[in-house]
Design brief:
The complex is a heterodimer of chains A (325) and B (185). With 325 residues, chain A is of the alpha+beta class. Chain A is built from 10 helices and 11 strands. In chain A, helix 1 packs across helix 3, helix 7 packs antiparallel against helix 8 and helix 8 packs antiparallel against helix 9. The relative contact order of chain A is 0.05. The chains are: A alpha+beta (325), B mainly alpha (185).
Chain lengths: 325, 185
């Protein structure tokens, strides 16, 4: 015995449907759905009742001591990377006598040949070139920086008041307000941002870093820096995704495109994700949605058929079956 | 009044603020408060119990380093669980990579067999534990956060930094895999 509304039992539990009252009323009359609910309850109870090995007081004490010692060490240890950067700057100063342009724009030596383009009209910044390394010190304001690698390998480090950004061949914007970095937006390539003692964060094209928030896929940015609003649970040290398998950020970027109505672009990104990972079920489903919204009914049908083929037991099967008769 | 006794009566938010300022006693107090909860979560969310202490250590250390970003909510339990969940997932991904590499190496050598089938046959795990052990880390973590920790799908999505639709998908498949085993006792 089954019921066409049986999926609603789980959907209501997970907050996928808002009208719980309708489900509750239905449960009173449908034995199949009640059985499904009982099955899910039994599963939850089994999971909650799984025994966990007893804790060991000694292990807890050891863990506490180890943790406090590690935290203490991290507070007292000199910031390794900063030290390296300072040494780099010092060595560069000694090796070649090119001075800092103090507080104000320092024009590039030869704009036509300069592989680094810095657009920072209202910012307070300075620049030092040492061999194939350029160090830009941004004290305040916005700087859009582009690095052209066609003239050979070049290293660019942007020193901000609370850390440093290492360019890995890119075009990016960095925003500094009141002595702290508030935003980094990467247009092309990638950068690595190191802030204080925090672990380095890699940002790839299309990603934006906001102070006090995690990395996000880029969405239309307001001109003003974001307010330090309550942030989502902070992230452990991580590398931002952007290549490889479709991670949360890749799908986040797709969702942002769909929100902006860039349906064709979203579909193209989803096809790339699926080419890299044919088991990306959410991407396969979103492709159907993107194509539908783009007005490509034939494409949406084909994508729905493709989903049903790839995921015969897929989570969205019921929703897509009518599209691919 | 010592730092420890001061920490003992403080709210989670106050401890977080102290920790952000480098107060070791605050970190010790938070560890005392949430070690047991976090340990249970990690043990349930990972199939590698020998890693649990390391994950706990790393989770609290990460929390200490980013305490300045704490959003001020009354209890930091779910915040800590979010950090631990991400660490469990990262570890699982690293282990999966190494396992795939070792499996490839094993296939190259004739006659070398994976020990896994024998281990599984000898295992005394019950059906649900076997199901959880076979499950991908992503699904397992979401399942534990929802069914054991009682977090909503939106809270899980926020904690893990993934779309809520992905949480729904993983949760559905995780339940389906376990329900397919039949005996849940």
């Amino acid at each position: 015995m089954t019921c066409p509304r049986i999926f609603e039992v789980e959907a209501a539990r997970d907050g996928r449907i808002t009208d719980r009252g309708s489900v509750e009323r239905h449960l009173q009359t449908c034995a199949a759905c009640r059985a499904r609910g009982a099955e899910l309850d039994a599963l939850a109870t089994s999971l909650r009742n799984r025994p966990v090995a007893d804790d060991d007081e000694l292990a807890a004490q050891r863990g506490r001591n180890r943790l406090v010692t590690a935290f203490d060490a991290s507070l007292t240890a000199p910031p390794r990377r900063h030290g390296g950067r300072i040494a780099l700057v010092t060595a560069a100063l000694g090796a070649i006598a090119i001075g800092w342009g103090v507080a104000g724009r320092t024009p590039a030596p030869s704009p036509s040949l300069d592989p680094i383009h810095i657009d920072a009209a209202s910012a307070r910044w300075s620049r030092l070139d040492a061999g194939t390394t350029t160090v830009v010190k941004l004290d305040e304001g916005d700087a859009r920086i582009a690095l052209d690698h066609r003239g050979g390998p070049r290293r660019l480090i942007v020193i901000v008041p609370d850390g440093e950004i290492e360019d890995v061949g890119t075009t990016f914007l960095v925003r500094v307000r009141a002595g702290r970095t508030t935003e980094i937006v990467v247009d092309e390539g990638a950068v690595v941002f190191r802030r204080g003692l925090e672990p380095a964060v890699a940002l790839h094209a299309g990603q934006r870093w906001l102070a006090d928030e995690q990395i996000t896929a880029r969405s239309p940015a307001p001109p003003a820096p974001p307010a330090p609003a309550p942030s989502p649970p902070p992230v452990p040290p991580k590398r931002a995704t952007g290549t490889g398998k479709p991670g949360a950020y890749a799908l986040g970027a797709v969702m942002a495109k769909l929100d902006r109505g860039e349906n064709v672009a979203a579909a193209a990104t989803l096809r790339e994700i699926l080419a890299r990972n044919p088991r990306a079920e959410d991407a396969a489903y979103l492709l159907v949605i993107a194509l539908q919204r783009a007005g490509d009914a034939g494409g949406a049908r084909a994508a729905a058929r493709d989903y049903l083929q790839r995921f015969p037991d897929g989570f969205r099967r019921a929703a897509l079956e009518p599209l691919a008769p | 009044m010592t730092a420890v006794s001061r920490a003992g009566s403080a709210s989670d938010a106050a401890l977080m603020a102290s920790m952000a300022a480098g107060d070791l006693a605050a970190l010790g107090e938070l560890y005392q408060r949430y070690r047991a909860d976090l340990r249970c979560f990690v043990l349930r969310a990972t199939s590698r119990h020998d890693d649990a202490e390391d994950v706990l250590h790393d989770a609290f250390l990460v929390a200490a380093r980013i305490a300045a970003k704490y959003d001020g909510r009354a209890s930091c339990r779910s915040w800590l669980i979010g950090i631990a969940a991400r660490l469990v997932q990262q570890r699982a991904q690293r282990i999966a990579r190494v396992t795939r590499y070792l499996a490839r190496l094993a296939r190259l050598r004739e006659g070398v067999r994976s020990p896994l089938p024998n281990l599984e046959a000898r295992s005394s795990l019950d059906a649900i534990d076997r199901g959880l052990a076979r499950m991908t880390a992503g699904k397992r973590i979401v399942l534990v956060m929802a069914e054991v920790e009682g977090m909503t799908c939106h809270e899980i999505a926020e904690a893990l930094g993934i779309p809520v639709g992905t949480v729904w998908t993983r949760l559905h498949h995780a339940r389906r895999e376990l329900l397919a085993l039949g005996d849940l006792r």
